[in-house]
Design a protein that fits this description.
Alpha-Beta Plaits, 9 helices, Elongation Factor Tu (Ef-tu), domain 3, 21 strands, alpha+beta, about 20% helix, Gyrase A, domain 2
């Protein structure tokens, strides 16, 4: 019996190619995302945050499953899935996109990677877009093949990640631009490497294309990073909320539209190409959204951890929305949150009451992202 034979709920929840390595390197807790285990606990989450923003962390994010779309009509089909205009997207480029349904609701907010003229990966947040894409394809009349490839990403994130990548791949990796990708081979391990990540820090994602080599890849990266302060870690809830990054099912879901999130830049209603939800999004834009995502801050005792329920947001005793994600930022020395509230009452500088797990607090509506709003760190 191996150390992992008795772990988990059964074979219906899958383990990543890096699962055994994460246990060896100290993973203490997991959650389930896209039907897979994801490490969520390597010890103190505040220390994980500080390691991320001062040195580097390596995260198993194999749960970012890929939907692969190929075939003569691949580009036209991918455009049908998203309101973001893709006609200028080059081979080797990545783009953050939204996938919308006929009502304009968000089904996923993935990163799209273009590996070749008619070869795309959709790197998913937590929802079953493989089924959606295959269903759409059935009646699309387009010549596409939609599959789930043997691809498992790691995230190497933090200010020292560039040094570690140079140790692994040489100085040429410095030329890889933000939101671009490169196909590479590391000592016989086939990879796609992109300048992306869910951290708002300088970082890379390494997409392993052969699951049998997961252990070897993890150990090579950790060895290369030893001189640069690299630690095994997990995606930082503190840093992603500081950066205003969405967590699907928390900050957005099928009932959320792009305009409520201020993501107008990801919606092009003037392009000639059609996409699912275009009519609904035109109507929503014309009428104006009824809700708005806002930032909140308050200076009471630090929250002991992230919220596990949607906390009510009130004004004068009337409910106007809910907190979707909240955490204490040790860098900013205050509690920060993302909330969805009535658009009519989303006034910057206004105060609201939040009913937290430990009682009501008075919070102020503020701009977000809370730190590095122009993403200069990640894009450096």
């Amino acid at each position: 019996m191996t150390q992992t034979d008795d772990f988990g709920f059964g074979t219906q929840i899958r383990k990543s190619p890096f699962f055994d390595a994460t246990l060896r390197w100290g993973a203490k807790g997991f959650s389930v995302y896209n039907h897979m285990y994801i490490p969520r606990d390597f010890g103190d989450p505040e220390q994980n945050f500080w390691t991320l923003v001062t040195d580097a962390i390596l995260c198993d994010v194999s749960v970012e499953r890929q939907v692969e779309i190929t075939g003569p009509d691949a580009a036209r089909f991918v455009q049908m899935l998203t309101p973001r205009k893709l006609s200028t997207m080059a081979v080797g480029q990545c783009k953050y996109i939204l996938i919308t349904n006929a009502d304009g609701g968000i089904l996923n907010d993935p990163v799209l990677l273009r590996l070749a003229e008619n070869h795309f990966w959709i790197s998913l947040a937590d929802s079953d877009i493989l089924f959606w894409a295959q269903g759409v394809a059935v009646h699309s009349g387009m010549d596409v093949t939609i599959t789930k490839p043997d691809v498992s990403p790691l995230q190497l994130q933090g200010p020292r990640s560039g040094h570690i990548m140079r140790a692994l791949f040489g100085d040429a990796i410095q030329d890889l631009k933000y939101y671009w990708l490169r196909e590479l081979d590391l000592d016989g391990i086939p990879l796609v490497v992109s300048r992306t990540g869910w951290s708002s820090e300088l970082g890379y994602e390494l997409f392993l294309r052969d699951g049998s080599k997961g252990d070897a890849l993890w150990e090579k990266i950790m060895a290369a990073g030893a001189a640069h302060g690299l630690k095994p870690g997990h995606t930082s809830n503190i840093r992603r909320i500081e950066g205003g990054m969405l967590s699907y099912h928390a900050d957005a879901d099928i009932q959320t539209n792009p305009f409520e999130l201020g993501l107008d830049r990801l919606v092009n209603l003037e392009m000639e190409a059609d996409f699912i939800g275009k009519t609904a999004l035109r109507r929503i834009r014309a009428e104006g959204p009824t809700r708005r995502q806002v930032g909140l801050e308050w200076h009471t005792d630090p929250l002991p951890g992230p919220n596990t329920r949607f906390w009510p947001v009130l004004r004068d005793g009337a409910r106007l929305g809910q907190v979707t994600s909240a955490v204490y930022s040790p860098r900013l020395k205050k509690n920060i949150a993302l909330a969805m509230v009535s658009a009519a009452q989303a006034d910057l500088g206004g105060t609201v009451d939040v009913i937290t797990a430990s009682g009501p607090v008075t919070a102020r509506i503020v701009p977000y992202p809370f730190y590095d709003p122009r993403k200069t760190i990640a894009a450096a």
